[in-house]
Design brief:
mainly beta, N-terminal domain of TfIIb, 1 helix, 4 strands, globular
Length: 62
């Protein structure tokens, strides 16, 4: 998890900002955090998680 540049303790606290508040999985190959429930992808830039819903890559469910 250190590959993202985000402290491990912070990764444990972060949750998806959408109403379900699901935990996030670190995806080091794409420098992002992925919601375990909705699948939205939140970027990590220069070690800072961008937890804004308008900055997320929204996964459309079919």
């Amino acid at each position: 998890m250190a590959e993202l540049g985000v402290a491990p303790w912070l990764l444990e606290l972060l949750r998806c900002p959408l109403p379900h508040h699901a935990k996030l999985d670190a995806q080091t190959q794409i420098s992002s955090l992925v919601c375990t429930e909705c699948g939205n992808i939140y970027p990590v830039r220069d070690g800072l998680p961008i937890m804004l819903t308008d900055q997320a890559e929204v996964v459309q469910s079919s």
